[in-house]
Design brief:
18% strand, 7 strands, single chain, 187 residues, alpha/beta
Length: 187
Amino acid sequence: MKAIETITGPVSVLNRDDVDTDQIIPKQFLKRVERTGFGEFLFYDWAKEPDWDLPRNEILVAGRNFGCGSSREHAPWALEDYGFKAVVAPSFADIFYSNCTKIGLLPVELAAEDVQAIAQAGEAQVDLAEQEVRWPGGSASFEIDQETKRRLLEGLDDIGVTLQQADAIDRYEAERERGGPVTTALA
């Protein structure tokens, strides 16, 4: 996955609360396991509405409880494939939040009034290193687990984290093959 540090630009606004994962990517599109190609089906049912317009910006501003419902990984995949790199909302479903961070999509939780101010400003800068969102006329800090932050800043998914231990894993496996006592600890 790609490393994240700062995301700057216009925002796309989805002014709806309780957006569940089936609304993000409906179940009929979950027949594949690859992570690409889902963006064209993002908000599929809503995209049929005559006044629907969701620009392909890098920052999505959404309502409270975003990503609720089932735990499908396809929802963050669809958002990422559409072009989003960060989602700013007052709250997220826990599993959705975790699934986002595992693929390099940054969920940012801010107070509802800050989210509204960003939507009205129409542009923002999300600075992961500083844990701050800035927009014309304001700024707000956000919390993130430090290990999650490190992984996002370094562009490390679960496989990348494991590969950081490749030398220690190789030493462990070599000792096991020789049949001797295993003394190597993983760092």
